Amino acid sequence: MLKTLQSKVFVITLLTLAVFAFSTFDMEAKAGTSQTKNQTVKHKSAANTSQKMSAKATSVKKIDINKAGVKDLEMLKGVGPKLAGEIVEYRKTNGPFKSIKDLMKVKGIGPKKFESLKNYIGVK
């Protein structure tokens, strides 16, 4: 009974680590980060042996919406090719964004979408 419980705890721990690693990787891919640090996460198995697992600590680099192309903008969560194209087209027609709040003038970006993007975008 104890070994079964230990096995279940071990499996749950591994699944939790896998979900964490995947979500970290997904955030890096969407935010377009290039700066990462390696950190070591220790995990004890049921046999009390230690394994080292490498995980990346994310350092979010903001995307300059005045310079970003369609592919760069698509890395933002919730921005697909159509919306990225709308942003680039708006910028070409109206000139550079003066602040990130100007992004809400783009068709398809309302307050809710802006809130989800504001920590990942900037203007220079």
Quick structural gist:
With 124 residues, this protein is α+β, with helices and mostly antiparallel strands. It contains four helices and four strands.
Explain what the structure shows.
By secondary structure, the protein is α+β, with helices and mostly antiparallel strands. It has 2 domains: 2-58, no CATH class; 63-122, Photosystem II 12 kDa extrinsic protein (DNA polymerase, domain 1), CATH 1.10.150.320. A hairpin with a 5-residue loop joins strand 1 (36-44) and strand 2. The protein is elongated and about 65 Å long. The chain has 4 helices and 4 strands, in the order H-E-E-E-H-H-H-E. The strands form 2 sheets. The protein has a two-stranded antiparallel sheet with strand order 1-2. The chain has a two-stranded parallel ribbon with strand order 3-4. The longest helix has 30 residues, at 2-31.
